Amino acid sequence: MTESGWIIPGENESNHTHTKLGKLEAELTHNPGYFSIKPYNQAYDDGSYLQGWYDGVGRKLSLFVREADGSQSPLNVIDLFGSEVWHQGNLPIESGTFTPSFLISRGDKPTYQHQSGSYYRVGNLVHFSVKITLSQHIVFTPYVVFITDLPFACDSSLVLPSVGVGFYNNVNLQDETLSCLFTDNISNTLTLYAVHTANSTAQTLTWDKILDTFEIWVSGTYAI
User: Fold this and answer.
1) Strand 60-66 versus strand 49-55 pairing type
2) What's the pTM value of the predicted model, to 2 decimals?
3) Could you check whether the bond before residue 32 is cis, i.e. omega within 30 degrees of 0?
C-alpha cells in the first residue's frame, strides 16, 4: 500500500511514507526532537520543506515551514475544498474561565451571590456560558441591564453572534420572556431584552424590574 499514505515497515522504509503525489521522507526522532517532511526531490522549488517537533512532556506538536536559508515561517493549512483552515498559525484552541458582571450605566455596583463564566475558543470563534446571581437588589431605576466582561471582544462583521438565555429567575415580567444581544457600541457586553410573548415586540430590560437574588444563565457563540 505504498500509494495510500500508510507508513511502510521494513526494507529500510520504516521512516518513510508514500502518497500519490510523490514520496515524502519523514525522519522522526524521540521526543523532544525534530522531524522533517520533504517532497521526493528533498525540497520544494523555493528550497523550503515542512519541519516540526513534538514535546512529549507537554504533549505539544509544533509545525512550521523551514525556508532555504534556515529561517522559520508560519504554516498555512488548506482543506480538501481549498478553504483555508489555518492561516499563519492563527488557529489557537484554548479554554478558560472568566468573571462576568452586570454593567449599570450610572456606575452602581450590585453585590453578587454567584458569578461564573467559561469559554472554549477555536481560532477566532468563541463559545461561552455565563451564570450570575445577585445577592441583593440595590438599583430601582429604569437603567438598562447589561452583562459585561466577556473574555474577548466580539467582531460581528465576521460572523453574526448567536446568544441565548437558558434560565432566569426573580424578575418582574408581564407576559414577557428574556432575551439578549451583543451591545452595538460595547463589543464584550450583552444587552438584556424583555420580549412580549403576544406580538414579539422587545424592550430593553431595566433595573426597576429586577428582584432580589435575580439569576440568569446565558450562553452563545461569537467571532473575534
Assistant:
1) antiparallel
2) 0.60
3) yes
